[in-house]
Amino acid sequence: MNEAAIKELLYKVADDQLVLGHRNSEWTGLGPILEEDIAFSSMAQDKLGHAQGCYQILHELGEADPDQIAFSRKANQFHNCHFVELPNGEYDFSLMRHFLFDHADQIRFEMFANSSFEPLAKLAKKVKGEIKYHVFHGNTWIQKLSTANEISKIRMQTALNESWNYALGIFEEGNYEIELKNEGVFEGEKALQDKWMSVVCPLLEKAGLQVPEQSSWEPVLGGRKGYHLAHLETLVTEMSEVFQIDPTANW
Amino acid sequence: MIESLDPRINRASISVDNNIEPLGTLDQWETYEVFHQKKRGDQHMHVGIVHAANPEMALAFAKEQFGRRGLTANIWVVNTRNVFASTYEDADIFETTTDKIYREAGGYKVMDKINQYKKSQKA
After folding, report:
1. Which among A35, A42, A90 has CB closest to B68?
2. Domain count of chain A?
3. What is the rounded CA–CA span in Å between residue A39 and residue B66?
4. Phi-psi region of A226 (alpha: psi -120 to 50; beta: other; left: phi over 0)
5. Three-state SS for B95?
6. Is residue A250 in some structural domain?
7. According to the model, what pLDDT value does residue B17 have?
8. 10-residue block means of pLDDT along chain A (251 residues)?
9. Distance (Å) of CA A244 to CA A19, A33, A35, A177, A199
10. What is the largest CA-CA distance in chain A?
11. Residue of A88, A208, A212 whose CA lies nearest to A160
12. Which residues of A touch B (CB under 8 A)?
């Protein structure tokens, strides 16, 4: 097995989960209604769990322990895509991001379930149910808000337009696409994006939303290579604030 | 660019006269009664209510409110409007005259026999 390739894959997947989990948790106490506040917070917590699962595998491959990885790195050492580090904006954007990202997440982990790298396949089977719920939750909200009234429809369309190029950045290719595919670890970002399009586009269409014109597509890249927006640094500083008080403490 | 809603960055401006209009009826979502089943084959038990815009959303919320701790096999959500109920004014329809205690399961003496049997099996 190509260990460098697997590590690169695990880092980007885990960092996406950690950063989006943290972002979504910023809604805790501010959600639109109590029930949704609880549901969205709970899913944010799930994401942190998925990140931890990946960091744990990395730890078993010789990397630092999960807490150290999560809280001791600088922003430019993170491999998440830009989409997940964007500030929450209003709830329409947060929901659209949740919908677009979690569909990619579900397909990615479905692919992982068949991975030749056993720890990853095991993790994928473990998190399957949680992701299924996240997708159900996202579908329900997108469908409802996009068809509720004129204002909500316009807001969801705007959120989709603002999200789209960032969402395409989820599928930024890594340095080891061919190796991962040949070794049966992961089918690759290209295959993932194709499947995602075939799932997400019909759902958006059913909700009456327009996928932006293909001529306007410009995937926002760089996150996988450690280039980030200023927002990530603020997030990482806040996220690791408590840990940094005493990095050696036993929690 | 998308601006943050983080209250530490942007605080909502609240007007001084505090002239808040009362909510119209459609500003409130409907409620759904939630029934929770622990194990397949068990009865669904009523566990509470959630506010939601439609049945799917009610199910999504019910899962997190009532299904995330402990065992859950299945959840039902039922729009509260679809529950047809007796009234408390008519609670007297449930009263029975005292000379009919033979109708109550508590009137049967069989428990003593069962316990006696269990005891003999243990010994």
Report:
1. A42
2. 1
3. 11
4. left
5. coil
6. no
7. 65
8. 95 98 96 95 97 98 95 96 97 98 98 98 97 98 96 97 98 97 97 98 98 97 96 95 88 68
9. 17, 33, 33, 35, 41
10. 53
11. A212
12. 26, 30, 33-36, 38-39, 42, 86-90, 93, 133, 136-137, 140-141, 143-144, 148, 162
Chain B residues contacting A via beta carbons under 8 Å: 2-7, 29, 50-54, 56-57, 60-61, 63-65, 68
What are the residues whose beta carbons fall under 8 Å from the beta carbon of A62, sequence distance 6 or more? Answer: none
Per CATH, domain B27-122 is 3.10.20.520: yes
Looking at the domain assignment, is residue A134 inside a domain? yes
**Prediction pTM value:** 0.86
Axis-axis angle for helices A118-146, B55-66 (nearest 10): 130
- Residue A87 sits in a domain whose CATH number is 1.20.1260.10
Interatomic CA distance for residues A41 and A165, integer angstroms:
26
A30 part of a folded domain? yes
C-alpha B9/C-alpha B42 separation (Å) is: 50
Residues 6+ apart with CB under 8 A from A82: A166, A169, A220, A222, A223, A228, A229
Q: What is the pLDDT of residues A199-227, one digit of tens each?
A: 999 999 999 999 999 999 999 999 999 99
Reported ipTM = 0.89
Task: Give me the domain span that covers residue A237.
Answer: 3-245
What is the C-alpha to C-alpha distance for residues A73 and A80, in angstroms, rounded to an integer? 13
pLDDT at B22: 67
Task: Map tokens 């995330």 to a residue.
Answer: B68
